[in-house]
TrEMBL record:
Superkingdom of origin: Bacteria
Any GO BP annotation: D-methionine transmembrane transport
Stated family: Belongs to the binding-protein-dependent transport system permease family. CysTW subfamily.
Protein name, entry field: Metal ABC transporter permease
InterPro entries membership: AA_ABC_Transporter_Permease, MetI-like, MetI-like_sf
Domain ABC transmembrane type-1 positions: 14-208
Transmembrane segments: 20-41, 53-76, 82-106, 147-169, 189-212
Keywords (A to Z) from UniProt: Cell membrane, Membrane, Transmembrane, Transmembrane helix, Transport
Pfam families, alphabetized: BPD_transp_1 (PF00528)
Main location: membrane
Length: 218
């Protein structure tokens, strides 16, 4: 395999991985944030205390986190086909990526929100803030550094998930690793793909750390 061919394959694979991870991150951020906030609000002593709702949400999140991603890929194939019409390709891979990452991020959101000092919430309540204002202007704002850090961790996890999606034709760098590194025994190309993945993770981690430091010193 020539270098031009390698660069062409890597360019295409990186674009596909970026697409999968980017779209999945968007849906994960929305879904995970919503569930994480609800886990805190519906807990005992929360602004919307409802133990049955909290228990159900917690059970769903725990089940989602306990299923290995490679098993999840296969288990929700009918759901994936229902949504996008196929189980192969980058668009199809976005579905299990999102389903697998939402519970993961939801727990990180919950942890970050629980670190907000109760005194801050009590002060906002005493000043007459509504529940919506407390969530938006107190909980989320005070927990912002932790939320950004959690999202950064989730994006990195999604890159690893996307590589596994290549095992069932999900496209991206993982698919290249399976087709060329495993099936064709091109070890050199496999090493290059690993290096590209490591570089991507390092860049994303640096960017995430930068945003965390920025929001921590507001």
């Amino acid at each position: 395999m020539t270098w031009p061919e390698i660069f062409d394959l890597l360019g295409t694979g990186t674009q596909e991985t970026a697409w999968m991870v980017g779209v999945a991150t968007l849906f994960t951020a929305i879904g995970g944030l919503l569930i994480g906030v609800l886990l805190v609000l519906t807990d005992r002593g929360g602004l919307l205390a409802a133990r049955p709702v909290n228990a159900v949400l917690g059970l769903i999140v725990n089940i989602g986190r306990s299923v290995p991603f490679i098993v999840l890929l296969v288990a929700i194939m009918p759901f994936t086909r229902l949504l996008v019409g196929t189980t192969i390709g980058t668009d199809a891979a976005i579905v299990p990526l999102t389903v697998g990452a939402i519970p993961f991020f939801a727990r990180l959101v919950e942890t970050s929100l629980r670190e907000v000092p109760p005194d801050v919430i009590a002060a906002a309540t005493a000043m007459g803030a509504t529940r919506r204002q407390i969530v938006a202007k107190v909980l989320l704002r005070e927990a912002l550094p932790g939320l950004v850090a959690g999202l950064s961790i989730t994006v990195i996890a999604l890159i690893g998930y996307s590589a596994m999606a290549g095992a069932i034709g999900g496209g991206g760098l993982g698919d290249l690793a399976i087709r060329y590194g495993y099936q064709r025994f091109e070890t050199d190309f496999m090493i290059i793909i690993v290096v590209v993945l490591v570089v991507l993770v390092q860049i994303l981690q640096l960017v995430g750390d930068g945003f965390v430091r920025r929001f921590s010193h507001r």
